[in-house]
Amino acid sequence: MAISIDSCAAMHIGDRSEQQDRLAIFPHPSRPGCMLAVLADGMGGHSGGAMAAEQVILKARQNFASYAPSSESPTEFLRNVIDDAHVIIKLTRFTSEQDPHSTAVVFMLRPGHADWAHCGDSRLYHFRNGALVARTPDHSLVEELLRSGRITEEQAETHPQRNLLLSCLGAERDPRIDTGGTPALQAGDAFIICSDGLWAYFPDEELGQTLHEQDARTAARTLIDAARKRAQGMGDNISLAIIKVVPA
């Protein structure tokens, strides 16, 4: 079956005074059927977080323009994007008064394949016909407590340190980078990368069903509207990119 891609990127400032998320989807300049989606959630005070997140997008675009599968595997490429952005963010400390940090999710689509890497608590979900196939693990204290069985899912939702990250770009330690992928794309696959300003308000099942039932643009609007209502005036920046594999 021939397939095509339905994609959408969307953002909302939420109830913050500044948009510190950055998001982009762009095609490879010379390789048909190859595209990159990048999301970064900046942290570090006024303008510092936005600057850090912007560096993730710029480095991803720069590296992608020179990406050549013959000399670099997808996993190596994705890791290098995050590592390189981490170094640049650390260097900005010497030219600014901020202490910039950022999360990162980098997703690459090529004919028949999808690969991704991430650091922090921005997430990638992979659904197939509405069912969850994979979800990136958060590099956060609460996620570690959950994995060790020290707290429950219900306790995690209201934990006072639920936003405390154990790894991010720009920190003294090298970033923890987890990777994943799927070797055989098919119609019905759907991916969403999003910041915690979105995923904090949805169970996995609702995200998968929304992506399954609606086209990318409609689903993005539906999810942002629902997140804004559920935030009750206390919402974080929202950013999301949806990539759906549909019959041509």
Radius of gyration: 17 Å
- Indicate the structural class: alpha+beta
Estimate the mean pLDDT confidence: 93
The share of residues in helices is 25-40%
Percent of residues in beta strands: 25-35%
- In CATH, the topology is named Phosphatase 2c, domain 1
How many separate domains make up the residues? 1
Q: What separation lies between the terminal Cα atoms?
A: 8 Å
List the helices and strands and how they pair.
Elements: E1 3-12, E2 21-27, E3 35-43, H1 48-65, H2 74-91, E4 101-102, E5 104-110, E6 113-119, E7 123-128, E8 131-135, H3 141-147, H4 153-157, E9 178-182, E10 189-194, H5 196-199, H6 204-213, H7 216-231, E11 238-247
Antiparallel strand pairs: 1-11, 2-3, 3-4, 3-5, 5-6, 6-9, 7-8, 7-10, 10-11
Give a brief rundown of this model:
The protein has helices at 48-65, 74-91, 141-147, 153-157, 196-199, 204-213, 216-231, and strands spanning 3-12, 21-27, 35-43, 101-102, 104-110, 113-119, 123-128, 131-135, 178-182, 189-194, 238-247. The chain has 248 residues and is α+β, with helices and mostly antiparallel strands.
